[in-house]
Amino acid sequence: MTDSPNNFNRKGGFSIKAVICIQRCSVYHYRTFGMKILFPVIAALATAIPLLGQTVTTSATPALVPDIPHGSTVLDALRNAGPVIVPLFLLSIFFVMLVVVYLMTIRRGSVVSSGFMATADALLRKRDYLGLLAVSNRHGEAIARVVQKMLDFTTKNPNADFGQVREIAETEGSRVAASLNNRVTYLADIGMIAPLLGLLGTVLGIIRSFGALGADLGTARYVLLSKGISEALVNTCAGLAIGIPAMIFYAYFRGKSQKLISDLESATTHVLALLSLQYDKRTERVPVLLEDEL
Fold first, then answer.
1. Which residues span the domain enclosing 25?
2. 106 and 244: one domain?
3. Upper half-sphere CA count for residue 214 (Cβ side, 13 Å)
4. How far is residue 292's CA from residue 232's CA, in Å, rounded to a whole number?
5. Taking the CA of residue 37 as centre, how many other CA atoms within 13 Å lie in the half-sphere pointing to its CB?
6. 34 with 125, same domain?
7. What share of the chain is helix, strand, coil (3-state, %, to 5)?
8. pLDDT above 50: residue 23
9. Against a cut of 0.70, is the pTM above it?
């Protein structure tokens, strides 16, 4: 069966239309595929550009930002604290020296020692006063000085009664106790003087701050104001930092000295009791000797 021209045209037209439709579909598919690829690329570029800009900015920022000076240390604050900090510094050195000396001297071994008391007890029972006097001269304890004064008076005044010897012992013991108490009071003086010096430095710093605030110096007056306030606070802190430990150590050494004074009184009472026994024996022998002579 032969095809007619109309059939051919129909078939040909149909095939031409199909080809055109296929070409259009391929072009549309190509454009769609290209847009799918293009959109992620644009999104990636859009996110990368700010990061690049931020990298460039951060790399360029350190060259533009000036160097910020570090904050002042405690030593710098003390150097700029004004003239009052100098006597406070000297007072702190004196305070430390006193504490070290008191720790080495205010102790029981420097007031009453068990070795000296044992020797004194043995020599007094033997009535060896000259030997005990020599031992007392070699020792540096406070009880040794008291015994030395008693024996010195007894050997030079053999006819003296026991009441006079007791008075000599009490006088020397009171002198030693007063010496201990007077040594400790230096710490109390430091504890009172240091805060007053700190207060003086505080007042001077506040005066300087108000003077800078009232001056026509522009923005520089705020710098001077802060320096004056810093000076005032540093002086206050320094005065309290010296005064508070001084009062603490004063309370400690005062209690320790009172305990040592009580130990000295106990040792002196023991020595006087032994001497009273010797005096009682001597008074008992005097009537016997008188009877023998009669």
1. 11-51
2. yes
3. 6
4. 88
5. 6
6. no
7. 85, 0, 15
8. no
9. no
